[in-house]
Specification:
heterodimer; A: mainly beta; Neuraminidase; 4-stranded antiparallel beta sheet; 2 helices; 6% helix; B: 133 residues; mainly alpha; Cytochrome Bc1 Complex, Chain D, domain 2; two-stranded antiparallel ribbon
């Protein structure tokens, strides 16, 4: 009897502590998952971005600067890829198809570019078309300035919304005290353009003297996740914090996301960056990660292929080498799950047109998550 | 007079050697610290402690101490596959950082002389240049 009382009270205590824990930083590893991971494309170094062509083939960017066309089990190198500034985190970055690709053939890519007078590089966006295993009709749509030899924070991801706007991100380029809070400067921003690279008249800083009018939102650190919410059509981003303080945000027009004035992270050295985590006029994240998972790539699950994963968000973790599943309720993260633990540095995740999830892993390749029947 | 000439030449030689001396270890370490903060710290962290199971430590790393050439090669060309550091097996990937040979020498000198690491031999540019894939 005594024992059972003890066990019962212990149980109550455990229940209490588990309820009291902040769900934010709790992560579960499920014993069963509704899929098996199958290696679809092997022997890739750092597959950075993926795009699915209408003929069921795929385009994969490698950070080092090659573009691979994967068709029926065969890899073909695409010619005509712009020269990348391969330094630090820079290289060939994201790839995305125009929503009307079938009719216009436009492919959008971001990469670190040496274009310009100064030494170093910065993030550029091009659109291009694929013809006979070569990129043709390439147009430079945007190039962030100035160049710098710093190795950090190029971003970058590309996303389209339902209204024909194109969004892409550029990180703060290692100059956090100068770039992110200044709308007259590039870097530390999410940009919005029309599909031909022109600046929409209703962009938030149009008409503001000196402002970079392509800017849609600012105060970002290094966004490597950018995706359209399948239901609301609004753009979401995630970004790397310093030590702690990775963020998931809903990207709003003209909004300031606070870096480095407010953050939930600290310097790598352990010293503080700011004592503020919130401030008037600055956005709060939907979710923040402490410790940092180093998020890269993001996709909503829209298909029914994985049971209750529908409407969940999947995010790659570079540092902890797994795929994170986030269950959202009422605009908040209510549950986190660690999928594919130990898989490797997850660089990108995307839902294909077939409703299946594809995961790009550094040093390995592209995995397809095959639903268990 | 003989003493004077001797002293004179000694002074001249000292001055010449001072002026034409290769960059000192101390300066190299200092520059290397900036490179480290720019390119390495996000994974290997401020005190070279690394991240358990993901990024091997550089502080008091036996691998680093025993594999100087392979370490430089890793920084220069990137590294992939299994690596045993202080008894722990890592199976990761490090992208080549696109650093100049001089920068690699600097950052190696910083790493080899920080957080309890010590190296008697300075890494020089020629040593980095000579290392091939």
């Amino acid at each position: 009897m005594k024992n059972s009382v003890l066990v019962l009270s212990l149980f109550v205590v455990m229940l209490y502590t588990s309820c009291a824990q902040d769900a934010k930083n709790q992560i579960d590893t499920p014993s069963k998952t509704p899929f098996t991971a199958e290696l679809l494309i092997d022997e890739l170094q750092i597959p950075w971005g993926m795009a699915f062509l209408p003929d069921d083939s795929m385009l994969v960017t490698e950070k080092t600067g090659s573009l691979i066309h994967f068709e029926k089990g065969k890899k073909t190198m695409i010619e005509g890829v712009p020269e990348v500034y391969n330094r630090g985190q820079g290289g060939l970055l994201d790839i995305e198809l125009h929503p009307d690709y079938e009719n216009n053939g436009w492919i959008y890519m971001t990469y670190s570019s040496k274009e310009g007078k100064e030494k170093g590089g910065n993030t550029a966006l091009i659109r291009t078309q694929l013809k006979d295993n070569s990129l043709v009709n390439s147009e430079l749509l945007y190039k962030a300035t100035p160049n710098t030899t710093k190795g950090q924070h190029f971003g970058s991801r590309i996303a389209f919304d339902n209204e024909g706007y194109l969004y892409f991100s550029v990180g703060d380029r290692g100059n956090r005290d100068v770039n992110p809070q200044d709308i007259n400067k590039d870097c530390g921003k999410v940009y919005r353009l029309l599909d031909d690279g022109s600046i929409p008249k209703d962009n938030p800083f149009v008409g503001k003297k000196g402002a970079k009018t392509a800017i849609f939102s600012y105060g970002h650190r290094n966004p490597q996740g950018l995706v359209k919410h399948p239901k609301t059509g609004v753009i979401w981003n995630h970004e790397h914090g310093p030590r702690g303080g990775d963020e998931l945000n809903i990207v709003k027009k003209g909004a300031n996301y606070g870096w480095p004035v407010i953050t939930y992270g600290i310097n790598y050295s352990g010293t503080s960056i700011t004592d503020k985590t919130a401030m008037e006029g600055m956005e709060q994240p939907v979710h923040y990660w402490v410790p940092s998972i180093a998020p890269s790539g993001m996709s909503f699950v829209t298909s029914d292929n994985y049971g209750d994963y529908k409407d969940n968000l999947l995010v790659g973790s570079l540092v902890f080498q797994y795929l994170e599943r986030l269950v959202l309720e009422g605009g908040k993260v209510v549950k986190r799950e660690k999928l594919l633990p130990g898989l490797g540095r997850v660089r990108d995740v995307k839902e294909g047109p077939d409703g299946l999830i594809y995961v790009a892993v550094e040093g390995k390749g592209i995995y397809k998550l095959v639903p268990k029947s | 007079m003989k003493t004077f000439i001797f002293l004179y030449f000694t002074c001249v030689l000292t001055a010449v050697s001072q002026l034409y001396q290769e960059p000192t270890l101390e300066e190299s370490i200092q520059r290397g610290g900036e490179i480290y903060a720019n390119f390495c710290v996000s994974c290997h962290l401020e005190k070279g402690e690394g991240v358990e199971g993901a990024f091997p430590p550089l502080a008091k790393s036996d691998y680093l101490a025993q594999n100087r050439e392979a370490s430089i090669r890793g920084v220069k060309f990137g590294q992939q596959g299994e690596l045993v550091v202080n008894g722990q097996t890592y199976n990761g990937i490090m992208a080549p950082m696109g650093l100049e040979d001089e920068e690699i020498a600097d950052v190696m000198n910083y790493i080899l002389n920080s957080w309890g690491n010590h190296s008697d031999r300075m890494v020089r540019i020629e040593e980095v240049t000579a290392i091939e894939k």
